[in-house]
Amino acid sequence: MAMYNYGLDSFTHVEHLYNNTKPIRGTNIVPLGDRRRRWECIIKVSPHQYVLSDYGERQLPHTAAVVWTRNAASTHSSVQFRNENGDYAHNGRYSFLERCMPTSMRFVVNSGKQYIHYDGSRYYLPKDERKPVVFTTSKQTGVWGLTTDPHPVPVIRVRVNKQAKAPYKKAIDEYLHWAWTMTPILEGTMDWESNREARIAADRMSGSTFKDMLMDDQHEQRTTMVHAFLCGLANDMGNRYWHGMAINNNVSLTSDPKKFRAKFNAWVNNMGEFNDSFEEYREVK
Q1: What's phi and psi for 31, nearest 5 deg?
Q2: pTM for the model
Q3: What are phi and psi of 228, to 5 degrees?
């Protein structure tokens, strides 16, 4: 089944397509494109409103992906876009919106969030059918203007749970000093294979398992975990290791004590699951 970019730029264009497309035989369904994709259709709500539906002919305007409306005087028209509900991917809706955009607009998915892009700006489209993004234009200007308030963008912030981390503070400090001492030795053993093995081991050592290791200075995985930490630090510093031989322009992993400490602390927070995530909102820029 073919999928088309519909390029419907105006209320008049939508109206013309509806009036000049034969319904699917035996039904009142007016398809948007490929007639086999009968769930993608145009619904005439009234002479002044049309729905572009991705859920068949019974979709209502307040849940529809795209709604075109024209005022009674035919001087202004608007187009509104909706996401679906729920904090997960709605790939069918994304595809439909992308194909229904007027040619001057784009539907954008970035970092798990969806936006309508127009005239150099992007407008966040929440995963909430009650929060559409609406643009309006006049017959005289033909320029779109946003007529809904911009929706703030949710961002995930991370904060260290100091109370949860407090019982491990002494053990973490001791592990940091031991890691610093071991680094010149371990760096001489770093190659593609040993780094891979250390990372695999680290994938199995998080949360309570990692915290148990912090409290046991004789734990068999302490050296391997430092090796895994050094892999990340080396990557941040642009170092490369191959067949046990460090590349000539590699930087010593203990060359910057402040960076070493900061990266180690962040690594411990992640491995020990001492971070709490929470959602904040910011305005789109």
Answers
A1: -70, 155
A2: 0.63
A3: -65, -40
Instruction: For 50-71, write each residue's pLDDT tens digit.
Output: 999 999 999 999 999 999 999 9
Cα–Cα nearest to 6, from 140, 77, 97:
97
CA distance 205 to 146: 49
What is the token pair recorded at 66?
Answer: 């795209």
Q: pLDDT tens-digit profile of 227-247?
A: 999 999 999 988 888 755 555
Domain boundaries, the chain: 11-151, 159-277
